[in-house]
Amino acid sequence: MLGQRQFNPNSERPDKMAIQRTFSIIKPDATKRNLTGAIVAKFEEAGLRIVASKRIQLTLAQAQQFYGVHKDRPFFGELCEFMVSEPIVVQVLEGEDAIAKNREVMGATNPADAAPGTIRKEFALSIGENSVHGSDAPETAAEEIAFFFSGLELVG
Ligand code: UDP
Ligand code: MG
Questions:
Q1: Ligand 1 atom 17 nearest Cα
Q2: What ligand is nearest to the CA atom of residue 27?
Q3: Is the pLDDT of residue 1 over 90?
Q4: How far apart are CA 122 and CA 106, in angstroms?
Q5: Which one of 4, 14, 90, 115 is separated from 151 by 20 to 30 angstroms, measured CA to CA?
Q6: Considering the entire predicted model, what is its pTM?
Q7: Mind listing the pLDDT tens digit for each residue in 94-118?
Q8: Does residue 106 contact residue 134 with C-beta atoms inside 8 Å?
Q9: In angstroms, rounded to a whole number, what is the distance separating the alpha carbons of residues 21 and 145?
Q10: 133 counts as catalytic
C-alpha cells in the first residue's frame, strides 16, 4: 500500500495526460496455449509499459478473494476453478490513461462482441476463458496491484 500511495508520476508534468497504472492477468487459457508473449506484445504496441510481472499459480482461496465482487454471480464457481487450473501471469501496466487503454486493447468480455485486433477477439476461447483480466477503475487498479505486488516490485 505504501508504494501505491507514494506513486505520483504526474507531479512534475501538469501539462500532460495522466499517467496511470493498471493491473492485468494473463489467464490460464492463454498461458496454457503459450500466448504470454503475443499478449504482452499487444500491451507494448499500445504504449503500455510492463513495470511489474510474475508468473504464479493461484490457490482457490486466493481466486475467490480476488473475484469476491462476483461471488453471487452464477459463473463464480466455474470462474474460480478456471483461474486456478494453470499458471497465470500477473502484471502492472503503466501509461497514459492506462486503465481505459488496457480495457480497449483487451476487448469486450465476450469475444463474440470484441472488436477486431483486440486480445479477446484474437485469442479468447469463450466468455469465461477470455485470456486476460484488466482493472476497471482507479480504485480497483490500486487494490488489485496491492493484492499481488509490494511497492518494491513495481519498477517504473
Ligand atoms: N465471466 C463469465 N461469464 C459471464 C461473465 C463473466 O465467465 O457471463 C468471467 C469472465 O472470465 C470475465 C470475469 O468473469 O472476464 C469477470 O467478469 P467481468 O464482468 O468483470 O468482465 P471483465 O471485466 O473481465 O471484462
Ligand atoms: Mg471486471
A1: 109
A2: 1
A3: no
A4: 10
A5: 14
A6: 0.92
A7: 999 999 999 999 999 999 999 999 9
A8: yes
A9: 9
A10: yes
Mutate to test the pocket of ligand 1, among 71, 79, 132 (most ligand atoms within 8 A of CB): 79
**6 has pLDDT over 90:** no
| pLDDT at site 15 | 52
Kindly give, in sequence order, each residue whose CB lies less than 8 Å from that of residue 117, ignoring residues fewer than 6 positions away: none
Give, for ligand 1, the residue of 58, 80, 130 to mutate: max count of ligand atoms closer than 8 Å to Cβ.
130
DSSP string for 84-121? TSS-EEEEEEEEETHHHHHHHHH--SSGGGPPTTSHHH
Length of the chain: 156
Backbone phi and psi for residue 58, each to the nearest 5 degrees, phi listed first: -70, 150
Unique residue bearing C-alpha cell 476487448: 107
**What spacing in Å lies between the alpha carbon of 9 and ligand 1's midpoint?**
31
Element (H or E) spanning 19, and its range? strand 19-26
Nearest CA to ligand 1 atom 19: 109
